Amino acid sequence: MKKLFITLIMALVGTTAMMAQTNPNRVLITDKTGTTKGFLAERIDSMWFAQIEGRIAAEIEYLGFNTGDTGDTVKIAVTRTEGCQAFRIDCLPKNRADMLGGEDGIANYLDASGSEYYWQDFTAADMTGYEFTPGVEYSIITVGYDMYGVACGAERYDFTAPKKELVGDCSIAYTIDEVTDDIITVSFDPADGVAGYAACLYPAGTAEQQFQQMGAMFGFTSLGEMVKAFGFNNVGPATNTWENNDPGTDYEIYVQAWDANGTFADMLIIPVTTKKLGGEGVAEMTIEVGDFGGDAVYGYYQIVTYTPNDQTSMHRDLIIEKEAYEKEWNEEKMIDFIKNEYTYDDQFGVDVAYWQAEPDTEYIAFSMGKNINDEWGPLASKELKTPSSPAAVSKKAGKVPARILKQAANGTGTTPTAIVKAITKAQASQPKLSGK
Question: In the prediction, which pLDDT does 399 show?
Fold first, then answer.
């Protein structure tokens, strides 16, 4: 063990004081996860570095799952490594555990949880105090503490809560009634055992991704809970129409049914593809420059309208400063960028775009579309110069632009980010670990 006495702290404080001409009175330590712990400098007597060999952790062995009249019980064994004095433990839905990241995040979470310390090994322990959703993945996590009370190694074990038998037939028959370029209509006919059901439309392949990104924030433990919260809900036979969808796009309708006890059935996934717009001819775009609006406080914007011809299935539109374009771009590079890189901004039909722009500045608006056979048409462009000051904002445009996109000189763009405020569902009670 090497000791480093308070003289080191005073030397650091003295150096900082000379540079900033102040007297720091806090000692702050930030770990790799960004968590900061602080101390009053006047209360620190000494600090030193210690070395402990080996991994300090509490290893988990999953032994089974029981459901009874008193609730659900997870059976586990926990073995401390040599040098591990105590451990903390918790069980979370897997999507919440995933948000903690790696070992450092789990250790910080448990260390700040205030849960009970356990000072002995368990060969057959009952873990209680949780309500488990059947068929949902969960994670048991632990962190081990050394002789100094430092949270060290973290362990994790994932398992799936057993499914419960459904009461009755919970199947759902369906009919796809109509599919246009932007409308999807489906009729549902639930079986007698269905106490309720929900249906939600997602672009193909994105439902699981959305659940992983947002599920934990909203307190959802399963994709079925997210579908039930955000989707169309009903009990008996019903028809639902989803509007304003993108043409020529693959979608999936997730249908979640549940029985009289609220137990979820297996998810039904209905694939459907909207019809494409356009024809087999040349896709051509027309660009028209509209009003310039905004102010110095909230920002300025330029309205540009991009209109496809009847052969155009999809198009991509942008705007760029003329000076930047002439320095770094040419027509060939722009075509390649629109075809291969500018893929997040697909447009269908007339696009009335509100671009972030500066007064008294020259820009070039570009657009390029492809037909129903995915054949690209010619690149359309139109030069424009914003006025030195905007005219009064029209009532039709409103004070807040419907869409703002700033196109940087290198061709990359930024789009508005939706800010979702949600409260994560808390555990109903503290976990309990009992047994031998």
Answer: 38
